[in-house]
């Protein structure tokens, strides 16, 4: 794991390191928008911290197009923000400069809340921001987010940049931490991560934000990815799976969905063994080792993982004595239901929509599947029928023996 970019404290005196830290903290604080709202009973109902900027494209006097990036100054006003009267709609309003208005609505539906609508308006008659605008006047844009549903009593967190372009405005949002509809005046300790933070890189169990460390987060199903390994120009290993890592470190358990869109894979195929290694842009990886047994079946023999938390600490786990995903060579192994591979006491992998074929892939396609017992409800039917048949045979045998005894006894008495 690369350590080259880490600050080497012994090189700095304690005092200068502290000064540097203060400087970093100060620059971070100045930019962050920060707001806590009370409801009519003086109970905290919403809190939010985030950063944003806007790039606006407008037409200039000489008919050209120009981009201007608008930063939110630290003296922005939040007036008009409130939690609503019915406890089902909350709104944050931000005003700054001459004529910039930004609002976001949160709506509550049953046991979740949604970031609903964001609107942004600006006034091109502001000569500081748009000195050469051809047309002067107010412009408003609105878009619906609505897809982000956060369980009630959890806070939403997104460190990654979320970018949305709506008409002439490109919105950037990052370092977001928000909880709306806070229950019972109690700020949550459970975090709900945005998809963008969920790639392997951002293992976020250990957090540096001023909140207690997160408890286990109920997660949505991981998005399945298809991974393949080629050898001599032909696909030799295929795997389709949604992967959720369950990591326990320093007594904190965190769930991490692997985002296939930001994950690469490579590997090796041999006659009796195969590997599939998933990695992201840093030196982190998750490796699956397959082997052959009895010459005619394959199975998952080992898993290795190596990750780095945001705070720089490492997490590694390995097990080379597994016996999962067992199927005949020449077929694939399939399990649509959630299944779990217990790699170690501190690491397990939850798999979803799994299909894997580590050997004898023909023409880049899966061969017939052997399904896991979890999927196969129909396995019960042969068992019941079989048990029934066995019972029937037993009854016939017993009846036969009794019959013979009787007749034998009969002979005796005769
Ligand atoms: C936001 O404000 C709260 C209270 O007003 C304060 O405790 C917190 O440190 C602030 N956070 C940032 C990042 O400025
Ligand atoms: C919110 O309510 C608390 C008491 O619960 C009070 O101390 C605080 O000043 C209130 N904040 C605002 C912005 O009214
Ligand atoms: C809420 O808190 C403010 C400031 O602390 C106080 O002036 C006001 O009376 C309180 N309102 C209620 C309803 O408790
Ligand atoms: C606006 O925010 C984006 C995302 O954080 C950042 O990359 C960009 O440099 C910012 N623009 C300016 C002019 O600061
Ligand atoms: C928005 O951008 C288009 C070009 O993409 C430009 O023609 C138009 O004037 C711009 N609108 C405003 C209100 O600046
Ligand atoms: C303004 O920014 C947008 C988004 O980044 C880009 O698509 C557009 O080409 C830029 N326009 C100009 C005139 O630079
Ligand atoms: C915010 O600060 C700027 C200068 O930095 C000043 O021109 C502006 O009037 C201030 N706005 C408010 C609402 O205080
Ligand atoms: C919020 O509650 C009010 C009254 O309880 C209701 O009329 C309104 O439709 C609700 N809004 C939403 C978005 O659920
Ligand atoms: C809030 O308090 C009520 C009653 O005191 C309780 O029933 C409810 O479970 C609490 N909700 C949360 C999220 O703590
Ligand atoms: C994560 O692992 C812990 C400890 O092994 C376990 O108690 C918990 O149920 C697991 N959670 C999920 C969602 O797999
Ligand atoms: C991955 O990309 C696909 C297609 O571009 C998209 O539908 C999906 O939402 C993305 N998944 C994640 C977890 O970002
Ligand atoms: C995975 O690692 C390889 C080299 O080992 C590298 O080329 C590739 O860029 C990495 N994947 C991602 C998504 O960065």
From TrEMBL:
Record protein name field: Lysosome-associated membrane glycoprotein 2
**Subcellular location(s) per record:** Cell membrane; Cytoplasmic vesicle membrane; Cytoplasmic vesicle, Autophagosome; Endosome membrane
Q: Name one Pfam family in it.
A: Lamp2-like_luminal
GO process terms (BP) = protein targeting to lysosome involved in chaperone-mediated autophagy
Q: Which domain of life is it from?
A: Eukaryota
Instruction: State whether keyword Disulfide bond applies.
Output: yes
Instruction: Report how it sits in the membrane.
Output: Single-pass type I membrane protein
Intrachain disulfide bonds: 158-194, 335-372
Q: Which gene specifies this protein's sequence?
A: LAMP2
> Which organism is this entry from?
Phascolarctos cinereus (Koala)
């Amino acid at each position: 794991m690369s350590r080259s970019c880490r600050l080497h404290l012994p090189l700095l005196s304690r005092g200068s390191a502290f000064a540097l830290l203060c400087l970093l903290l100060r620059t971070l604080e100045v930019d962050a928008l920060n707001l806590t709202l009370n409801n009519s009973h003086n109970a905290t109902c919403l809190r939010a911290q985030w950063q944003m900027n806007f790039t606006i494209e407008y037409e200039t006097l000489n008919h050209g197009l120009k981009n201007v990036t608008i930063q939110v100054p630290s003296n922005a006003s939040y007036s008009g923000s409130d939690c609503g009267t019915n406890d089902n709609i909350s709104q944050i309003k931000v005003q700054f400069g001459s004529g910039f208005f930004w609002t976001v609505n949160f709506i509550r539906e049953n046991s979740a809340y949604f970031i609903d609508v964001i609107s942004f308006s600006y006034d091109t008659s502001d000569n500081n921001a748009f000195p050469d605008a051809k047309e002067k006047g107010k412009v408003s844009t609105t878009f619906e987010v609505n897809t982000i549903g956060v369980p009630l009593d959890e806070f939403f967190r997104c460190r990654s940049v979320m970018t949305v372009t709506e008409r002439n405005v490109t919105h950037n949002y990052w370092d977001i931490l928000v909880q709306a509809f806070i229950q019972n005046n109690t700020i949550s300790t459970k975090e709900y991560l945005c998809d963008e933070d969920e790639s392997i890189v951002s293992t976020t169990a250990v957090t540096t934000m001023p909140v207690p460390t997160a408890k286990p987060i109920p997660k949505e199903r991981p998005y399945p990815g298809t991974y393949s390994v080629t050898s001599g120009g032909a696909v030799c290993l295929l795997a389709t799976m949604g992967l959720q890592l369950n990591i326990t470190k320093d007594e904190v358990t965190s769930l991490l969905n692997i985002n296939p869109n930001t994950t690469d894979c490579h590997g090796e195929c041999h006659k009796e063994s195969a590997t599939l290694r998933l990695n992201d842009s840093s030196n982190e990886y998750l490796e699956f080792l397959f082997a052959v047994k009895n010459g005619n079946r394959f199975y998952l023999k080992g898993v290795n993982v190596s990750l780095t938390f945001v705070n720089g600490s490492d997490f590694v786990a390995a097990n080379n004595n597994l016996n999962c995903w067992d199927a005949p060579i020449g077929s694939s192994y399939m399990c649509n239901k959630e299944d779990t591979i217990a790699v170690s006491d501190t690491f397990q992998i939850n798999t979803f929509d799994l299909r894997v074929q580590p050997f004898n892939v023909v023409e880049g396609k899966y061969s017939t599947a052997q399904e896991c017992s979890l999927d196969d409800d129909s396995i019960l039917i042969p068992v019941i029928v079989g048990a029934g048949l066995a019972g029937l045979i037993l009854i016939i045998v017993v009846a036969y023996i009794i019959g013979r005894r009787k007749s034998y006894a009969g002979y005796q008495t005769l």
